[in-house]
Amino acid sequence: MLVIGLTGGIATGKSTASKAFRAQGVPVIDADAIAHELMEPGQVSYRLVVEHFGTQVLSEDKQTIDRAQLGRLIFNDAKQRQALNSFTHPYIRRRILWRVFQCYVRGHAVCVVDVPLLFEAGLDRMCARTLVVACTDQQQIARLMERNGLSRPEADARVAAQMPMSEKMRRATRVLDNSASVAELNEQVHAVLRDWTPSVLRTFGALLAPVGLVVSLPLMPKSMLGFGTLCAACATWIAATMAGL
Question: Which helix (H) or strand (E) holds 113?
Answer without folding.
Answer: strand 110-114
